[in-house]
Design brief:
Trna Endonuclease, Chain: A, domain 1, 24% helix, eight-stranded mixed sheet, alpha+beta, 262 residues
Length: 262
Amino acid sequence: MARLLFDGQWFNPVQADSIYESDLEDLIIKQAPVIYPNYWVIKYKRVIASEYGTAIPDLAFIEKSYRAWYLCEVELGSHDLFAHVMPQVSVFCNALVGRAEACYLAKKETMLDVSQLTAMMQGVRPGVLVLVNAFDPRWWRALTESGALVGLIELYRDSGQRFIMRINGDDLHIPEQLISECVRDKLLPNALRVSAPAPIDQLANPDLELWYEGGRTVWKVLRTGGSCWLLPKERCPLRVKDQRYIITRDTNARVRLERAKK
């Protein structure tokens, strides 16, 4: 049995079922400024709808420059992966959200700008993060294949009820030069739907030049309402199987399109 020694005190592992899920959420929120310094981490107890039904996430992660956002499910490792977790992930990966959800979040976190938040949330569906307190390789395989990120947060506790958190798995660090995340549009399969329209507008002149897999590509910027799409001016260079991308600026100030890492 692994245990941790810190400052002369032993911290023993907390059994996965011996803590309430809500208490685990509170611990994550309390330590969020250290674990996720680039994000606002907010309790999100509101129904999310999609073509796969409805579900209620536990947390929302909002990147502080409005370049990315995630719906998060906090789980105990004893929960049933396929009966309980996977159906919720399917809903969140295809969430239909807009200004109502942005206003809900802004009421819970006053630092948020509703206009920028709305534009981001309407621009692209959220990423999905599952945080679990016990390791099971089946979770990694199934959730990764579904497009979700998986983080492991194991708890250790000493006799004085102090906690140590052991963090592993996927993280949400944003590259310094990230411009925007984007996804393939289901109705326009050759188009990319952009999560952060504002920096795209600044770069387009009027089209957007992106370097992709070693070559130059040119994209038309299409704006409708609060949403933004990129359409290739020539043959679409994207691979059919890849759905999520990021637009970055490299050290030579070249704007690049890259496949997002799972």
